[in-house]
Amino acid sequence: MNDYGVFSLMPVTGKSVFEENERASWFSHKTEISKPYYYSVYLADQDVTTEITPTLRAAIFRFTFPKTDSAFVVIDAFQRHSFVKIIPEKNEIIGYSTFYARGPLKNFKNYFIIKFNRPFKNVSTWSDTVLNRGNLSAENKHVGALVGFDAKYRGEQVIAKVASSFISPEQAEENLKELGSDNFEAIEQKGKDEWNKTLGRINVNGGTIDQMRTFYSCLYRMLFFPNRLYEINAQGKIVHYSPYDGQVHDGYLFGGTGFWDTFRALYPFLNLMYPSINKEMQEGLVSDYKEGGWLPEWSSPGYADIMVGNNSASIVSDAYMKGLRGYDINMLYEALLKDANNEGPIGAVGRKGVKYYNSLGYVPYNVGINENGARTLEYAYDDFTIYQLAKALHRPQSEIDLYAKRAMNYKNLFNPEFKLMSGKNEDGSWPANFNPLKWGDAFTEGNSWHYSWASMHDMQGLIDLMGGKDVFVNMLDSIFKMPPVFDDSYYGGVIHEIREMQIMNMGQYAHGNQPIQHVLYLYNYAGEPWKSQYHIRDAMNRLYKATPDGYCGDEDNGQTSAWYVFSAMGFYPVCPATTQYVLGAPLFKKITLNLENGKTFTINAPNNSDKNIYVQSASLNAKTYTKNWIDHFDIQKGGTFQLQMNSEPNKQKGIHQEDFPYSFSTDKNK
Ligand code: CA
After folding, report:
1. For 621-653, how does the pLDDT look when each residue is reduced to its tens digit (9 = 90+)?
2. Structural domain range at position 117
């Protein structure tokens, strides 16, 4: 996203070069060390080893130089207007970067402070391609600094303590205090302890070393986003720069997440394992709404104009349904109603095509609104999440009824000729050119085979539309039986998401992108859970690797990782804003969830193996368990979920309607 006002530090030796291509160095990934709390790389052309260890808003760099009379560190504040100032008497460089590609953001600056442990031998600033020797400050389109050091022997080190702030230079200096008087090793150890504690919320046993690596790499990725944009001021108060009015406000703010991706499993995972941080994120959404007037859909930070849907509704509703409290839910609910009934300042905020959607029950194919089918289907699910929250907040019955009705709007796009969802014209006719294999057009980064299952809240309704369970299962099976053919004419070329589906050779199954990621679990709604168990294990094995190219597509702010982590635990939140997780089968013999409330929930599958991928029988706290789902609040109570695994499916288990997961159509409490 090119965001957040990036700036860089780069060691150079020999010549006082500073431009990107001149200062560049060969390096090999083979000699990198990359850990959540430590990074090291040997820069071959410079003959310098660079290390970094971070805190939340600061970091220590350590440069190990060869013996040279020309050792430098280049500071680059990048090319969207920048500023640097060298303060030799304090061994310090301050400045700001405004590098940001999804603007405009009001008054956006990333202020930085870089404090070296040694005096500068010489100083320069540079602007574009011109070096100004002896100059102490520069402000222009693209500026930086170049400071020199003595390296009298091979192995001489230069240490730089670095911090940044979106608020002010003074706040950057405040953030530098996160490092205290700790040296490099102390910060590294603290980072290691912190990550060990955080990742240790889940313990997995009884898998291969590669499965462990994949699992914890995914968990790490999930916890990396969204980013904290708030800072702690000198008075100890939580404050943030607002991308909306450019001012500093009290309270939390987060960014770096696209809800189109992350509503599906990333946020539900936070609600399960790290609810206290999602409570802060919900407070951050209150800040977004108060300062910007809308909830973001893709925050990087603020409002970025990409993707479709109004899935912030799911983010807000799921948190509340899963028991998070202690923030202004009524203001967030007010925001949901506003966003659900208005077009926003940009297409990706509020609901584009809302007038059509609210009057016709769908956004038509032929009125000049792109990706109208995806919008309709996502709005309908989002309306279900609003309905759930409206009930929980005891809103007026007329309001509850309205969103219950709109939640059924997905039915309007069911094209009976194909038994699939398609775009629909304003006059109610079906577009003559409908091709279920066409990516984009009525849909978003997917085709009809990916989007037809988007009524996560009402699979029974979809089963009824298709003509019963057998047809539904047949349609699911077809995804894997079809060849990976496609129509890319909407994009005018093969987008990477299409290529990722094609090369995986799993038919039309496109796990490298988000709309289909819940679909493997859907056999549970039609009484054939063993097919889910088979495909989920297959996807875990084939689509996730403990290698640098281990992901099958965009990782997308933790969502694709969240699919793996949930699936490896044996369940998945098919429909956020309900409290059910639909069952698959775990990857490990034992998984222990150390819940934030102090309780422990263990998933035991002692005879799990590469062959024993099917659940023969299950018990929860020593009582036989027949359901195809498990409830969030049962997990929160702590306990043991015991699974007997087998190499053959048990075709008598999970076949009865009363054991199927939630569907709105069969909800007796609605
Ligand atoms: Ca994606």
Report:
1. 999 999 999 999 999 999 999 999 999 999 999
2. 8-197
